Amino acid sequence: MTAAVSFEAVSRHFGAVKAVDNVDLAIAEGEFFAMLGPSGSGKTTCLRLMAGFEQPTAGHIEIFGETAEGVPPYKRSVNTVFQDYALFPHMTIVENVAYGLMVKGVGKAERLKAAEEALAMVKLPGYGTRRPGQLSGGQRQRVALARALVNKPRVLLLDEPLGALDLKLREQMQEELKGLQKSLGITFVFVTHDQGEALSMADRIAVFNDGRIQQLGTPEEVYKRPRTRFVADFVGSSNVLTPDVAARLGGPRKDASLRPEAIRLGAAASGETAVTGCLLSSAFLGATHRLTVDVEGARLAVSAPAGSPVPAIGEAVTISFSPADLHPMEAA
Amino acid sequence: MTSATLPASITRRDRGLTGRLSDTLWRHPQLFVAILLIPPLLWLGIIYVGSLFALLAQSFFSIDDFSGLVTYELTLSTYGQLWSDANFDIIVRTVLMAALVTLASAVVAFPIAYYAARYARGRMKAFFYLAVMLPLWSSYLVKVYAWKLILAKEGILTWFVGKLHLTWLLDAWLALPIIGGSSLSVSYTGTFLVFLYVWMPFMILPIQASLERVPGNLIEASADLGATPGQTFRSVIFPLALPGIVAGSIFTFSLTLGDYIIPQIVGSSRLFIGQAVYAQQGTAGNIPLAAAFSVVPIVIMALYLTAAKRMGAFNAL
Amino acid sequence: MRSDRSTSAPLPLKIAAGAGLLFLHVPILIIFLYAFTTEEKSYQFPPPGLTLQWFAVTWNRPDVWAALTLSVKVASIATVIALVLGTLTAAAVSQTRFFGREAVSLLVILPIALPGIITGIALRSAFSILDIPFSTWTIVLGHATFCIVVVYNNAVARFRRISGSLVEASMDLGADGFQTFRYVILPNIGTALLAGGMLAFALSFDEVIVTTFTGGQQSTLPIWMLEELIRPRQRPVTNVVAMVVVLVTFLPILAAYYLTRDGDQVAGSGK
Fold first, then answer.
1. How does strand A212-217 pair with strand A204-209?
2. At what angle do helices C186-206 and B123-137 cross, to 10 degrees?
């Protein structure tokens, strides 16, 4: 099956800055694909390469098997939801939504009908006559979504679409986006710096740093088996162990990660590894306690369920974990 | 929205000539910039810069004293004439006047700009803006003409001074050497007043812009730290407004430097640079000397702009 | 004890600012007064009497009409040229990145940064070198050159306010470059261009220094006034023309102000 979007050794350099550096990826049709990374990691540039706002300095991009280099944005059946929404301030909401159809020559009645349908789909029926300035951030976001979807793109690109929304609205939109993607069956490519968002929404995640993909996999793979220190650090919080410490805890002599929630207070059950250390600090986080345990000079973060008895600070504690959770990583 | 017939991944609908042109320009952004820039660059480059160079070139020729015709041989002798006493006096007089006008403009403009930036809100702000913009944009000649009415011997100022029983003061002022004269309209004082009036509005908006960038809490902080209003002005407000003053002074200085109409209509018979240029190219027919004279303000403004740029004045424009 | 910042200005500041504004406006008001004076020979104040007769006299003066017609013609053509060239330059400088942007913006500003007499004499000597006879077009040539910057400044300011992603959004939705210009860029910069055009018109309508060098025997309205100032023929007519000129230039200035004020609010809400 042809990939919806594929990158072969794609680079985009701005002078000496390697914004995207030798990236390979293949996004399957119908997939919800997240590109995760800190700012300046190259994820947004990758999105802009897909949309056609940037051209690769090297490598090859295909969209549904067709070469994308040299094809202007207006000739790609790819649409974008912009970070700042980029709604046209001089047009009404319905004119905004119908814009793509208008420039493609769709008749007025037909495009207005399609625009109203799209607005209904994003739960903004009857908002058509307003102007972008009269809407809230969340509403503008929905309009931006409707404006892109009304063109029936085969790939929808979303550039940090939830970044400007407050927490409650963001969680609600996450679910709606996910639902929309499932019902439309369109490929979604989603850029975010929020690992929680990527983990909860995406089918697969590409973790970016310094213009390169650090790891590409399902949320579970990326979370449980980070391939590099960067991924272990950036996705969730993890105990990143030096080779010495990893060996002491019974793993191979390599950099390794051990998730705080994989560690349990108490003696080892069968097949588990147990070590003793000294409790340095404890913080109550609501659902969990966050403990820091010193094991022979190595500090391990432990996430213990709230309600479990917490030893006093300075006391000796025994912690145990399954050796399978001690995940060795590449050195980089 | 779950339509079964999805379009091809890359649409190929032909958009005709404009579509193809658009594609070409999109693929060659440099070509696009070139197409945008060629008309204005041709206009400004050929008509304007070309003329400037033609003028500049003439300043390196000289005029034959007997025939009165231009001798087309490169020489610096025309520039040498600028240093003759009479011509050098003209340069000094003009620069001095430009400097005085600039200083006085800053003094008169500052309170207006300060009030507009810090106290005027809403409608008041719009009022101030228009109150500055309308005189700034209204006809230059009409403004000069208005001052001819005001400064004339039988005019409004004489009448007003008489009503205040201050005629003796005006007479004493006019009796002063250099700045005095038989009436205000034929004195340096008159020239100065008209220059001030005509160019001062150009000082207000840059000062206001730079003051608006000063956060109000900075002034409160200064007061909070125990500074008197005077100290706050000297050590906080004035330094922060300085880029705006310098930006405004570019206008007042440059405009005064090149003006030849105001001193011709209101002033003594002694020449300013602009008048000298006009006289040399017109009645005297000495184009090389006129060209050399007009290089003087260019050089002065180039130095002035370089200094202003160092002071960050361009950010306040 | 420190009091809270008072919301009203200290009295000396009010007086200084008020006096400054008076200084700016009283001379213009005086022009209005003199348009009605009965005194013919001198600038006597206060006017011995008031009359409307000079409006009728001015109305019947063909030389005033000829000068006014030429001024309007020159200002209109110069404005159109300045609109095209200023907008193109503004688009290139603000929407794209290229080597030499600074030089281009300097080049645009130069014609008003340098004293008008230099622009004037430079053009005049170029005309004489190339044997170009003076005409309406030589005046237009000079005026358009220094009007470009006014349009350019207005357009650049508005281009900066258009979020860059608007253009990208338009292209993303399927509009090619021309459609994007027509449907997105033009509606957003339209009022700024109109305002720039108004100001350019006002600037050209009022210009005298460059025109004295490029006009030859023709008189624009400011040239006509200048001649009246140097060699007065009928002072009351000059008074009336001065008042009319003030009123005529106020209109485009006010229009430009309202256009950019409302327009920028609209453009600013883009985000």
1. antiparallel
2. 40
- Chain C partners of A99 at a C-beta cutoff of 8 Å? 170, 173, 175, 183
Contact criterion met (CB < 8 Å) for C225 and B224: no
C175–B contact, CB cutoff 8 A = no
CA distance C162 to chain A (A): 9
Q: Residue C186 carries which DSSP code?
A: H
Structural domains present in chain C: 9-51 (no CATH), 61-268 (1.10.3720.10)
- Between chain B and chain C, the number of residue pairs with CB atoms below 8 A apart is 259
- Hey, is the C-beta of C185 within 8 angstroms of any chain A C-beta? no
- CATH number attached to the domain at A5-233: 3.40.50.300
| Angle between helix B201-212 and helix B188-199 axes, rounded to 10 deg | 40
CB-based contact C84 B39, cutoff 8 Å? yes
Of A63, A117, A183, nearest to B10 by CB-CB distance is A63
Pick one of 2.40.50.140, 2.40.128.10, 2.40.160.20, 2.120.10.30 as the CATH number of A244-328. 2.40.50.140
DSSP A40-54: TSSHHHHHHHHHTSS
Query: What is the 8-class DSSP label of residue A270?
Result: T
Answer whether A89 sits within 8 Å of C269, measured CB to CB.
yes
User: What is the ipTM score, two decimals?
Assistant: 0.84
Q: Token pair 């607005």 is at which residue?
A: A119
Which domains does chain B possess? 18-58 (no CATH), 85-316 (1.10.3720.10)
* Residue A65, min C-alpha distance to chain B (Å): 9
Handedness of CA A36, A37, A38, A42 (dihedral sign): negative
Per-residue pLDDT of chain A (332 residues; tens, 9 = 90+): 688 999 999 999 998 899 999 999 999 999 999 999 999 899 999 999 999 999 999 999 999 999 998 899 999 989 999 998 999 999 999 999 999 999 988 889 999 999 999 999 999 988 989 999 899 888 999 999 999 999 999 999 999 988 778 888 888 888 889 999 999 999 999 999 999 899 989 999 999 999 999 999 999 999 988 999 899 889 888 888 888 888 888 888 888 899 898 898 888 888 888 889 999 998 888 888 889 999 888 889 998 888 777 888 888 899 999 988 888 888 65
Which of the residues B15, B53, B108, B149 would you substitute to probe the C interface, choosing the one with the greatest number of C C-beta atoms within 10 Å? B149
